[in-house]
Request: fold
Amino acid sequence: MYIIKNAWRNLLRAKGRNILIGLIVCIIALSSCIALIIMESADNTAKDGLSNLNITATIGVDREKLMSDATKNGTDPKDVMTSVDPLTLKEMKAYAASDQVQDFYYTLTSSASATSSLDPVETSGQSFGAPSSDNQNQGPGQQSGSTDSNKKFTMGDFTLLGVSSANAMTSFSSGTYTISDGAVFDFGANNKECVISKELATLNSIKVGDKIKVANPEDSSQTFTLKVNGIFTGSSDSASNQQGGGFMASMDPSNQIYTNYETLKAIVASTDTGSKMISSVQETYVLGSPDAYTAFKADVAKLGLSDEYTVSSNDLTNYENSLLPLTNLKKFATVLLALVLGIGGVLLTLFSIFIIRERKYEVGVLTAIGMKKKNVALQFLTEAFLVALIGVIIGTGIGGALSKPVANTLLADQISSIQEQQTNQTAQFGRDVGGGPGGPGGQATTVSNYIDTLSPTMDLSVVLSLAGICIFLSLIASVAALVFVMRFEPMRILSERE
Amino acid sequence: MNILQIENLEYRYGNGNKVIDGLNISFESGKMIALTGRSGAGKTTLVSLLSGLTSPTGGKILFDNQDLTAIDKYELRSKKIGVIFQGYNLLPRLTAKENVVLSMDVAGKKIENREQRAAELLEKVHLSENLQKRRVLKLSGGEQQRVAIARALSFDPQVILADEPTGNLDQANTEEVLEIFRELAREGKCIIIATHDPQVTDFCDQVVHLEKRHDIS
Reply:
């Protein structure tokens, strides 16, 4: 008890020295507190976001692996790529049997050409000279999903989307498009009904109930009639974002025609072998949680999915990309913490060596009157701990209050730095080439919905870490004195003084 | 009864100089013993050896018939032997009273109302209440010496080792301190005083004169 009393008394009687130590500790604690809170809240935000994420997945050909295998085996990558067929709908449905799958839907995508009664909506930058029907391009969805063939084909003016259920119309369920007139078609049977965009309807003076005619891009003499069951509107932002830089009219959302899967399947099936319409199926497995996603990967492997295919999730990839500023901020906070503790530790050690001369006599007197070395060491440690505790409490208080504005300012800096990088890249390439991986249609994606707000709070783990820092700083601040106490005999200290 | 016994004691400095050689003395309880000798004769060294602050290079010291090497030196200084250092060795940041109380705290003996006992001891060595509250750094040499004496008495030791305890005191104060020592001796304590002062020597029951040695072996 007298050790604590003596330590406290020394603390008050050597104000200058202790205020200086306390100030150093306070600055270390303040910076550490901010760094720890940022690290903790970055982790929590990422975890919370992930747990709230409704993950969907697709299965596609693992091109990366195929390329790698081709390089290893010295085979032609083109041959390897064409040797693996996309999954059939039957196979897709088989994998949907996994217990992890909450919902399963798919979309058949194809292309159609304009007819005399239906003109496509003109898109900016489309004036490439050649008629749209002559555009030789890769078909939609060729990156993944099931396609009829890998040959070159003619790109039409419209994109036909045959959806299996309402859930497959993600642009509608997300609110990007809204049915403004009429209603969506039934999904069950080949009813030859469709919904079209308001722009397309206005351009061609089409009303709900009218019939439209589209042609096979491979053979314009083959036409197909669909009844317009509804007209949808969408935001101009979404349209401009999705039109592929204005290269293809069919990529313009205004030129997308939605029908059900059975209708489009029947249309594709009705085309002749020589002029077969190219189509592909893109499936979506709704899995929910990240754990379910991991389990689904294991399930499909058990169900026989070859390693030439891979399960991927754009939701997860996009989410991981959206965490980039947060990850950078966490890295910054970790470096800051290490630097502060390192530099602070060195400063405190130097200071403790500097003041040892003053304390040397004290050690000599205390041991000369019979105070055991371990008790002298304990008293010095208690003094250092009390100073560190006061410094840490004040530093933590200020750090806790400053953590939110500091964290959000730093996060905003990280975001603007990344966005600036993207802007520069866009300027250099003349268009957005995207920072992230390609989407299902092979489109590059640039993440713009970064997590931009942190709600830093001090939880138990931060408090425990700060307590650890407090003990660490106490040891550092008293290490020279402790070494001295343990090494020297009282008579030597006192005789040196005399 | 012999409380301290020195048998064939030898002490050499690190450079090999022998300062004490073949010393045999017995110190009895209830007596005042003066250690005299010229400067460098080994008076202070003997005080250090007897208090366990220094270890002998030869021979042995018995405290209450127990070899000093077998006794915890810290226990010895905090509970059994009170040392009054020539340079006082007080803690400058503490007040006179706090220095005395700290000594009792370190001893850990059951002493009721340590503050009051410290005040009584300091009054005994004629340190006023006002001076008791002052930090020792602000006290004169004589006042500090009196605080050192009070501290040595604070835990009621069996032996008091004093190195020039009256060096900074005037004659009146010296007499008073010697009277205190006499009283303690009457209580059965052994008082060993290293001194040059003939007044002190005359007051003691026994005088041990140390000869200065110059040999290097």
About this structure: Confidence is low (pLDDT under 50) at residues 125-145, 236-247, 435-445 of chain A. Residues 117 and 471 of chain A are 81 Å apart (CA to CA). Chain A has two domains: 2-50+324-497, 85-307.
